[in-house]
Amino acid sequence: MYRLDHPIIIALIAGLSIPVYGQQPIIYPAKDQSPQQQQKDEGECYAWAKQNTGVDPAAVGQAAASQPAPTGPQGERARGAVRGAAGGAAIGAIAGDAGQGAAIGAVAGTMAGGARKRRRAEAEQAQTQQVQAQSQQALATYNRAFTACLEGRGYTIK
User: Fold this and answer.
1) Each residue's pLDDT tens digit, 6-59
2) Is residue 89 a contact partner of residue 102, using CB atoms and an 8 Å limit?
3) Vertex 74 angle, CA 72 and 77, to 5°
């Protein structure tokens, strides 16, 4: 049975920050730039790329890591069982056996509650994947601009 609990959701969201920092390019000073010059150039290119793309990689990383975990309703199966039992008891009373109707209704309600919980979990997972894809696309755009700036200043970027 597929189950998506909150610790898993939290781990997925926390994992979004890994690609953010894992995509940082490696910069080599191809024209013997000093470490101070490289730091200055990187800072200027960071600002230039941020301004021209509208993407701040630090903000993207923080937004992805701080996205609240979807909470979703708890106890779907229990509520489904209660609703099913109530409905089954009502139908069973009409048919002459409220107890048996309640038992059958509780089982059906439990299954329906589980199905609702799975649908919500799948929707939350799709939303998490969408946020991750948007973050990666924004960072790729920023990295292209950052790389172009540094290459223009004589650095090799990989």
Assistant:
1) 444 333 333 433 344 456 789 999 999 999 999 999 999 999 999 999 999 888
2) yes
3) 120
For 52, residues 6+ apart whose C-beta sits below 8 A from its C-beta are 145
Q: Of 81, 87, 73, 69, which Cα lies nearest the Cα of 119?
A: 73
Q: Which residues contact 138 (CB under 8 A, 6 or more apart)?
A: 53, 55, 60
Query: What average pLDDT does the structure give for the chain?
Result: 73
Contacts of 64 (CB under 8 A, 6+ apart): 13, 16, 17, 20, 131, 132, 135
pLDDT at 20: 43
Q: At 155, is the secondary structure helix, strand, or coil?
A: coil
Give 47's contacts (C-beta < 8 A, 6+ positions apart).
none
> What is the CA 15 to chain-centroid distance, rounded?
8
pTM score of the predicted model: 0.54
- Please state the domain extents for the chain: 6-157
